[in-house]
Amino acid sequence: MARSNLSQTLALPLPVDTHVHLSLGGDPQANARLQLAAGVAVVRDAGSRDGLLDGVVLPPALTVVKTGPAIFKKGFYGSFLGDNRALSLAEKIAQTPSSFVKLILTGMVSFDVYGEVGPQQWSFAELCEIVGLAEACGKKVMVHVNSDKACREAVTAGAHSLEHGYFISSETLLMMAEKGVYWTPTVAAMANQTRDPDKRFSAVQLQIIERNYKRHLEMIRFAHEHGVKLTIGTDSGSYNVPHGSSFLREMELFVEAGIPVAEVWRIATANGYELLGLPGELRLNLDPGLPLNTLLEQAKLVFCKQLSI
Ligand SMILES: [Zn+2]
Asked: Residue 6 domain-assigned?
């Protein structure tokens, strides 16, 4: 039986969600506690409006890497999690509280017209300028981006990770594999909309949503097969993406995409640590033949013991 081939023990760091918004979808402290309760040990906060999280005391057991407010162009998508203050680009970049800068390059995916996304905010030349300004102060740029054209420009300009990346092509993914650019596809944020708990969407919109997330699963599979560095990022705090429980959901969708469970564990842990540049000293020993939720249960046991919570 295949089980015996899979049952060697893996040594992995704790689970990392590389894309959440603690300031969205409820109180930030409560949201942080939900992450811990779900077995997530590390999160990267991918943007809060005008530094909303700056003064918030979060549970010390949760490692939080903050990008501060996202950088977006005035009049375009992103004010609710972005920097609305009258500062220059260089000032905004220098002020981010970690080594990551969150840049919003395009708008959201349309649910009315398949393949359509909100407009691109920054030209390729501006993108290069932003990446250069970040590099000058030792920072990396994570880019909120949809549409293949914008994804490709972000990769060419020197983005460190692409977030979402709906409608990305296989050619662009191959460029990412070559350049070592991370991809955080946030597929649960799309797939969860098919459940439509508030009956917000029409039948036509639900078909488009379904098509979007099914295509995204195919691209996630392609990315994995061709060596793109994937991470689990949930976009928790956005609509229908609850804090905590979304981590397991995103992992399950990676399995649905065709990635073996033991590989998903590695993506959910080691890849996240690598993206964030963390040492990963808190390690788990796991049998990869066990189901995905074992990862989170074991993670909780480890950090409860080591961090005395
Ligand atoms: Zn986000």
From this structure: no
Per-residue pLDDT reduced to its tens digit, 133-192: 999 999 999 999 999 999 999 999 999 999 999 999 999 999 999 999 999 999 999 999
Q: How far is the CA of 306 from the centre of ligand 1 (A)?
A: 30
> How far does the centroid of ligand 1 lie from the alpha carbon of residue 234, in Å?
8
Q: What is the pLDDT of residues 58-115, one digit of tens each?
A: 998 899 999 999 999 999 999 998 989 889 999 999 999 999 999 999 999 999 999 9
Q: Which domain holds residue 36?
A: 12-307
Q: Is residue 204 part of a domain?
A: yes
Residue 209: inside a domain: yes
Q: What distance in angstroms lies between residue 294's CA and the mean position of ligand 1's atoms? A: 27
User: Strand 16-20 relative to strand 10-13: parallel, antiparallel, unpaired?
Assistant: unpaired
By the 8 A CB rule, do 45 and 98 touch? no
Phi, psi of 219 (to 5 degrees): -70, -30
- What's the token pair of residue 19? 């894309």
Residue 233's CATH number: 3.20.20.140
